[in-house]
Design a protein that fits this description.
This protein is of the alpha/beta class and 265 residues long. Helices cover 33% and strands 12% of the residues. It contains nine helices and eight strands. The strands form two sheets. Strands 4-2-1-5-8 form a five-stranded parallel beta sheet, with helices on one face. Strand 1, helix 3 and strand 2 form a beta-alpha-beta unit. Helix 2 packs parallel to helix 3. The protein is globular. The mean pLDDT is 95.
Length: 265
């Protein structure tokens, strides 16, 4: 477990020094603001799709729900430049579930599918849109099918974010005292249904519901670290501030540790 003594020197580094810090273990780009980051995300994914389209190949991408800043510039680029998404296969990263492991109503604030249907798919011109059969939603009842489809061919690019404990998708650090994980366990984790950690619930409650944790879905279904990090390219993004600042510094400076899955980058 990382100690306060280990964390302190990393956490005291001003953000302005992170991008070029000599001890940094992974590349970092600091954007001016959320809008710049959204444009960068949109442009990179459009360029990736166009490159595959020109070669007559599909584009296989793992895509998160969020950050919200990139959906509008992405759909605008697709429509303006007439980029066909017919060959794009989207593997959605994760989804929130209620206390019985059931999917949420699409109108729920934490229904990732509801949000993505409205923000990522609906604004695209129908003649350019991702085919319904290529919108691969991870659900409690299709884990084996999603896993098999992901491993049919390489993933070209993973987009994602990270949580307060450096989780990628919903691959959180385990808090269960009776089943601790090694770093290899985390690295090889695959598609599954799980209970969310209390610190994840509280972080989401603070972010969205004024700390009313009673409204936060307590379970999730997620792709594993194995799937997310199998891609030829992995890009993680965040525009949500202080609650992710420590995990970012751990990712930049720490050895790999199951306490922070993001260190596997």
């Amino acid at each position: 477990m990382l100690t306060a003594k280990q964390l302190y020197p990393w956490c005291r580094i001003p953000w302005q020094e992170l991008e070029k810090h000599p001890a940094r273990r992974v590349p970092l780009r600091v954007c001016r603001d959320s809008a710049e980051m959204g444009r960068l995300m949109a442009r990179e994914l459009v360029d990736e799709i166009q490159s595959h389209n020109r070669r007559g190949e599909p584009t296989r991408a793992i895509i998160p729900c969020g950050p919200a800043c990139w959906y509008k510039p992405f759909t605008e680029l697709v429509n303006r430049e007439q980029v066909s998404l017919k060959g794009l296969v989207v593997f959605h990263m994760d989804e929130c579930l209620d206390w019985q492991g059931r999917e949420l109503p699409l109108a729920h604030p934490y229904s990732f599918r509801g949000f993505m249907e409205a923000q990522f798919y609906a604004p695209v011109a129908p003649e350019l849109a991702v085919r319904p059969e290529n919108r691969v939603w991870v659900r409690p009842n299709n884990l084996d099918d999603v896993r098999a489809r992901i491993w049919q061919a390489p993933i070209d690019i993973t987009y994602g974010g990270w949580g307060q404990d450096g989780h990628i998708a919903y691959n959180q650090a385990r808090r269960d005292p009776y089943s601790g994980l090694t770093i290899d366990d985390v690295r090889d984790s695959t598609v599954r249904v799980q209970y969310n950690n209390w610190d994840t619930v509280l972080a989401l409650a603070q972010r969205t519901f004024g700390a009313a944790y009673q409204f936060v879905p307590p379970m999730s279904v997620t792709l594993g670290v194995k799937e997310c990090l199998s891609a030829k390219k992995v890009r993680l993004f965040s525009d949500t501030g202080a609650w992710k600042a420590t995990a970012l510094r751990v990712a930049l400076f720490s050895d790999v540790t199951p306490e922070y899955p993001i260190t596997l980058l």
